[in-house]
Amino acid sequence: MKSHEEIRHRFEDQLEAVRGEVVVLGHLVVENGRRAAAAVLDNRLSRAAEVIAADDEIDSRYIHLERSVYELLARQQPVAGDLRLLVSLTRILYEMERSGDLAVNCAKSMLRQDGFRLPSTLHALLAQMTEASLDLFTQAVTALSSLEREAGIRLQRADDVVDDLTGEYYRTISIESDTLGLAAAIELSKVGRYFERIADHAVNIGEHVSYIVTGAFPRPTA
Predict the structure, then answer these.
(1) How far apart are CA 145 and CA 23, in angstroms?
(2) Taking the complete model, does pTM exceed 0.90, yes or no?
(3) CB atoms within 10 A of CB 34
(4) What is the helix (H) or strand (E) element at residue 119, kind and residue range?
(5) In Å, what is the CA distance from 125 to each residue of 32, 48, 156, 222?
(6) What would the CATH number be for the domain defined by 4-214?
(7) Which of 121, 181, 211, 214 is deepest in the core (most CB within 10 A)?
């Protein structure tokens, strides 16, 4: 019969293994987000199709990990910090899966328009915005890996850069709307919104990481 200490050690190993797999999932989401950004910026329809295909693995891992977390919750009856970790992982998994879907939405917007021909100013802004958004998401995944205490507040503040770039991007679309055409302008506005939302999901992940460590959600920054 296993001792309480042995059971506890095995449970801790399971928790670490699941958290590690969630980190891997986060990196896959970032990778596909970068693939989606490159598809739009380089106007490559083949890359857009790759984004849609790559989401199958993200969805499969999400389903597997969500099941694993709920099994640990049901079988181990965790308390205190372990319970916070498992409950937070269910929310972090949701944020990651939704971010993966947003990359797919971006690819589908591109396919609906048979590609985008971006004016240079808009291309530069979109490149900056997608890079800032995906960098924020990468930081969130790293924060989960290291269990960074201040991740929530730090990512809230960093998100201001994405918001500012998004606002400038929308204004530029409005200026270039005659050149782009109405349908393309609408789809490009959606693309901007998708990457803005990926950054928002990154902030949410950071807040959950802070909650795992401290037991409290960070207050919104002014």
Answers:
(1) 6
(2) yes
(3) 17
(4) none
(5) 20, 20, 21, 25
(6) 1.20.58.220
(7) 211
Q: Tell me the domain boundaries of the chain.
A: 4-214
d(C-alpha 54, C-alpha 63), whole Å:
15
3-state secondary structure of 78: coil
pLDDT in tens, the chain (222 residues): 566 566 667 878 889 999 999 999 999 999 999 999 999 999 999 999 999 999 999 999 999 999 999 999 888 777 788 889 999 999 999 999 999 999 999 999 999 999 999 999 999 999 999 999 999 999 999 999 999 999 999 999 999 999 999 999 999 999 999 999 999 999 999 999 999 999 999 999 999 999 999 999 988 765
- For 43: left if phi > 0, alpha if psi spans -120 to 50, otherwise beta; the answer is left
Overall residue count recorded for the chain in this entry:
222
Q: Helices (H) and strands (E) in the chain — how many of each? A: 7, 0
